[in-house]
Amino acid sequence: MIIHDYDDRTEPVVQLEAFYGPQKHLVDKCLILFSKEIHEYLLSHYDCAVIGRLGSCAGDVNIYRFRPADEPVAFYLSAIGSAVASGSCYEAHWQTGAARFLMFGSCGSLDGERTRGRYIVPTEAYRGEGASYYYAPAADYIKIKTADRLAAIFDELGAPYVQGRVWTTDSMLRETVGLVQRRRAEGCLAVEMELAGVEALCDFYGLTLYDFLEAGDVLDESGYEASGLKSANHHLGKLHLGLEILKRI
C-alpha cells in the first residue's frame, strides 16, 4: 500500500546527476508558476536568461533567471499535479541551487464566505495525492512550515488573506459531494493539486517552500461555479504580490 512507501533507510536508485551533471549554485530563490500568461509577462517585461531545463520526452521546460530587485531569482512554468510539480521542484533546485521556493496559483474554494476577496495562506494540506507518501511518513495532513511567516509578510504588505487548511487532490473529476463535505468539516478552505507533494519533498530535502493561493471556482454541495477561474489562474496581482514576498524571504 502507498502508505507504506516512505523509505528513508535505503538509497534511491535514480540520481539527478545522471541527467544534469553535478549540482549547480546560481541563485538562492525560485518562483514556481502555473500560469502561462504570468510566465509570458515575466519573459516580456524582464531580461531573462535560460539557466536550466526540466527534461522530459514530452518536451523540455526552461528554467529562467531574472532580476526583479537586488538579487537574481529563478522561475519556471510547472506542470499541474503533485507528482510532476514536486519532482520539478527538486530538479530546479539541483540545476540552480535555489533552496527557497515561492509557489502560487489558483484553487477551488470550499468556503466562499471566508475566501472571497482574500488570498489563502495554507497552514496544512490534506494528502489526497500520491507523491507526498514517498517523502514523508503516512498521515492525513502535512504542515506548511512557513505559514505563519508568510502570514506576517501579508500583514506587513497589507494584503487581504485568510489562513487555513487546504485539500491537495490528484483528480478534480473525483471531488465528490461526500469528499467536499468531509474536507469542509475538517476545516479545509480550498482544494488544489500540488501543495502536499511539494511541501513533503521540500521538507525531505531541507528546502523551504512558501505558498499562497487565489480562489477561482467554488465547490459546494449544491453545485459548481467556475466564473472566476480564469481570473484567478492568470491574475497578475499574484505576481506583483509574489515579487514583494521574494524580497522578504
Number of helices: 9
Structural domains: how many = 1
Output the strand order for the largest sheet.
5-9-8-6-10
In terms of structural class, how would the helical and strand content be classed? alpha/beta
> What are the secondary-structure elements, in order, as H or E?
HEHEEEHEHEEHEHEHEEHH
CATH top level label: Alpha Beta
Rg from Cα:
18 Å
Query: What name is given to the CATH topology?
Result: Rossmann fold
Quaternary state reads single chain
Spans of at least 5 consecutive residues with low confidence: none
Shape descriptor reads globular
**CATH homologous superfamily title:** Nucleoside phosphorylase domain
